[in-house]
Design goal:
With 258 residues, the protein is an alpha/beta fold. It contains 10 helices and 7 strands. A 7-stranded parallel β-sheet has the order 3-2-1-4-5-6-7, with helices on both faces. The structure holds nicotinamide-adenine-dinucleotide.
Length: 258
């Protein structure tokens, strides 16, 4: 039977210590997966630990800086030493940097690309060899990667990640490995907790659903993309943004005439 259940599957989630990554790890455990949650901290962060009491799958924690190639090799060797095939990878870890066009430095770009683009590339390179047909990779983009969002390093990194995702879908398709991207809008996490009220207000004004999103709302789409229910979906991009990226600027016109 085709279902959202992931029993018997091993899934690696990066940046799983808090925010969306932690919610994804918790939901995947609930769906029965063995989840290898990874993040920068040496020990399992508290936000994740509550998934351990869940009834279904299993939660394991590993320290991993996604920009560090040797860390990925160690993770791959560790997975192999347990004899675990990898069925899913969620490239969720990401950082932001808010310099604008005339201020952004090359160092800003390199730092953000090191995590948001190279991190995902290293993840795919390291774990695809441990995957078989039916495996699924989900990259976490952003509405910034669908629009001209103002922070230069972040926005261009997410556009680059889209290219990497499409290319990986093409390259790995013949092996039966799917690669898709979710593009969150304004989601309530520690990353957005410090956003200026003006940013929040302006974003809500562009969002047809008129509210920000919750971490579980992104996690649900990630679960779908990892599950056999999406077995013919690859190279796809799914905004999870309350419609923010869907209207091409027409919302203000529509609102003005209401
Ligand atoms: N929150 C939003 O509104 C929003 C919107 C669009 C896209 N996103 C994307 O969603 C993803 C998750 O964002 P979030 O809001 O949960 O962010 P967050 O800052 O709350 O959590 C990000 C996690 O990534 C980890 N991380 C950072 N650098 C890392 C590295 N080098 N190696 C491993 N882990 C690292 C952090 O320790 C943290 O636990 C990111 O890719 C982000 O760009 C978020």
């Amino acid at each position: 039977m085709v279902s959202l259940q992931l029993e018997g599957r091993t899934v690696v989630v990066t940046g799983a210590g808090q925010g969306q990554g932690a919610a994804e790890a918790r939901l995947l455990v609930e769906a029965g997966a063995r989840v290898i949650a990874t993040d920068l901290a040496a020990d399992m962060p508290a936000e994740l630990a509550r998934a351990e009491s869940g009834p279904a799958g299993q939660l394991l924690y590993r320290q991993l800086d996604v920009s560090d190639a040797s860390g990925w090799s160690e993770l791959a060797s560790w997975l192999q030493s347990h004899g675990w095939r990898v069925d899913g990878l969620v490239n969720n870890a990401g950082i932001t940097q808010r310099s604008r066009l005339l201020d952004a430095s090359v160092a800003d770009l390199q730092k953000v690309y090191g995590v948001n683009v190279a991190g995902a590339l290293l993840g795919i390179q390291s774990l695809a060899p441990l995957m078989g047909s039916g495996a699924s990779i989900v990259n976490v983009g952003s509405v910034a990667g669908l629009t001209a969002h103002y922070p230069v390093a972040y926005t261009t990194s997410k556009w680059a990640l889209r290219g990497l995702s499409q290319l990986a879908a093409l390259e790995l398709g013949p092996r039966g490995i799917r690669v898709n991207t979710v593009h969150p809008g304004f989601i309530e996490t520690p990353m957005t907790a410090g956003a200026k009220p003006e940013f929040r207000q302006a974003t809500l004004a562009e969002t047809p659903l008129g509210r920000t999103g919750g971490v579980e709302e992104v996690a649900g789409v990630v679960l779908f993309l990892l599950s056999p229910l999406s077995s013919y979906v690859t190279g796809a991009e799914i905004p999870v943004d309350g419609g923010q990226s869907s209207h091409g600027g027409a919302k203000s016109v529509s609102d003005a005439l209401r």
